[in-house]
Amino acid sequence: MSTQVTALQGALAAEHAAVYGYGVAGAMLAGSEQADARADWSAHQAGRDTLEAMLTKRGATPVAASPAYALPFAVTGEKSAARLAATLEEGVTRAYLALVAVSDPTLRSFAARAMQASANRALAWSGSTVAFPGMPG
Is the pTM above the cut of 0.90? Predict the structure, then answer.
């Protein structure tokens, strides 16, 4: 499997997890936060679909979503739901970081824009960010 396909599969897996996680988070939110979660959920569905098309174009079979995902912590209310949304976005940002490292400039540019979007969503949910989102601490 090529480095590009591996990185695309990793980003797709993160998008699948985000779609699932936003379903959990959104159920615990109300009002504008629920609307924000719904918009972010839709953004991850679009990201998932784009990555699946990119993989198919390269002759690869896109990794399938799991029927369920283990959450990193219990989501019991609005605060933990917002924290989950931020955690999901951080995971997506990390996954796209691997795609930024491939040699194809089109994929690098795509991944950089995707990282920026997920880092901004993480900031919106958590209220803080780090100097280089996605990079290991």
Answer: yes
